[in-house]
Amino acid sequence: xxxxxxxxxxxxxxxxxxxxxxxxxLKCPLEGPALLHSSRFSKGSAFxxxxxxxxxxxxxxxxxxxxxxxxxxRAYQQYSSRDSDLAKNTFMASMKAQNEVLYYKLLQNHxxxxxxxxxTPTEGDAIQNYSRLFxxxxxxxxxxxxxxxxxxxxxxxxxADEVDYIVVSDGEEILGIGDQGVGAILISVAKLVITTxxxxxxxxxxxPVVLDCGTNNQELLNDDLYLGLxxxxxxxxxxxxxxxxxxxAARKRFPKAYIHFEDFGLRNARKILDKxxxxxxxxxxxxxxxxxVTLAAMTAALHVSNIKLDEVRVVIFGSGTAxxxxxxxxxxxxxxxxxxxxxxxxxQIWCIDKPGLLVKSLGDSLTPGQVPFAREDxxxxxxxxxxxxxxxxxxxxxxxxGTSTKPKAFTEEIIREMAKHxxxxxxxxxxxxxxxxxxxxxxxxxWTDGRALVATGSPFPPVEYGGAKYEIAECNNSTCFPGxxxxxxxxxxxxxxxxxxxxxxxxxxxxxxxxxxxxxPLLPDVEDVREISVDIAAGVIKCSVEEGLxxxxxxxxxxxxxxxxxxxxxxxxxxxxxxxAD
Length: 582
Hints:
Layout: H1 2-12, E1 26-28, H2 32-36, H3 49-54, H4 68-80, H5 85-98, H6 100-109, H7 111-118, H8 122-128, H9 130-133, E2 140-143, H10 150-154, E3 165-169, H11 185-199, E4 206-212, H12 218-221, H13 236-253, E5 258-261, H14 266-276, E6 282-284, H15 285-305, E7 314-317, H16 321-338, H17 342-346, E8 349-353, E9 356-357, H18 388-395, E10 399-402, H19 412-421, E11 426-429, H20 441-447, E12 453-456, E13 463-465, E14 468-470, E15 473-474, H21 481-491, H22 498-509, H23 529-546, H24 559-568, E16 578-580
Parallel strand pairs: 1-16, 2-4, 3-4, 3-5, 5-6, 7-8, 7-10, 10-11, 11-12, 12-15
Antiparallel strand pairs: 8-9, 13-14
Helix pairs in contact: 4-6, 5-6, 5-8, 8-11, 11-21, 15-16, 15-22, 18-19, 21-23, 22-23, 23-24
């Protein structure tokens, strides 16, 4: 019923004539069996009698016309009968290939239950088994041996005005499971599912892409069923040229599209973002998305613990793409809010990686993302090691963030040491999947006598301690990156600026339940994500307009009108009436 009300509101809105506002019939060029096999247009058993006649469907469907809600009930029963998470993931992928609207409606109705199935951690299993589970290709497969065909390959997915959002991955660092080669197409697909589910990006205006440049995963190279290039992963100039050729071809073919880089390797991720973020509207979720959602949780925790940004001390354990992305976002926000220089702001952050605390003498072994956070070699007292415990003893941090994929790294000794020096230790074990978490939330509450403020990278059940029940906030990028993308797409922003990301963080933080109740979660629940995405998109769009980056005309300046303008352009999982098209 909610979708009917939304459709009615859109139809009656003054923004109903916008190109992305689905307020009228959907033009359909198909009929008969071809229509039933189109995931975009098919309604299955829900085709009404008039459409069955108009599109030559008589005899192809059982006679009883069902509603979308009735289809969802049956689909959920079928889903529930699958005996493993991977089987459920495969069932959902099959449904998406058959009936897009039913797929998204089922997800919306069971979002919290199904999120771990269609995304982390189960999607990681599907990616590892991509070549063995393969049934039907989805997305654009580009390979480094055939760079002359990039433009031709992209031309299969529409014209200049038909793609809004591109997710591209080279598959080198997937969801904590490493190099997965051509299977990375599934992470691009999954991210785009989330943009539709959480922010209403039109599924027909998206493009998942994999850049196949080989793999260093020997298990894949030895697998006779592996579908990707059978060669070691390309590096250096050849790789850089491949990425550049893709970006140029995508910009030429789809000049209005926003490009989202996903799960690139440690050195390439930062290098690619640094190269293109000043040229095009682009985003790296591992760097910027993780940074934004973590910062929103952290600033909410600072509010609860009454710590000011200009005095906060942060230790980050694990300084890869995610860790340095978080560090960068924290430093940007400290600099913006306190008027410090970025260099001064960075001094409030201590980054640790495999060699221990990052120091300047590590020189060329530091990645570009690590360099700004390297400390002086003599910073720790003489004789002290550069390990996590020693750093915690020296720094006395307010905030400890884990992105190391090193399970149980936050030991009882380390957490108790931290808790000696701060009233409310802020501890975020963020590594995915769950088995790689640096600590379990129940231990964190026990070791801090219930004083910890906790957010995790995967969902955890509530913790009971000292007669109180604590809901665990999940630092889920899905509460953040879809809204950022929606704002960038609708404003047609030339670039995605640092101020736009800060606006996104502020919008997400404003939704923190902990701002009203200090024992409540630091971040809102993923079930509220569509409303959150509207808030974030509004903040991003206003900032884009203020900075002179927005290229879309007619963006409302009034806050209420802007929200209506955004909502009118968000796709809903409903069956739109079909109208014949030549």
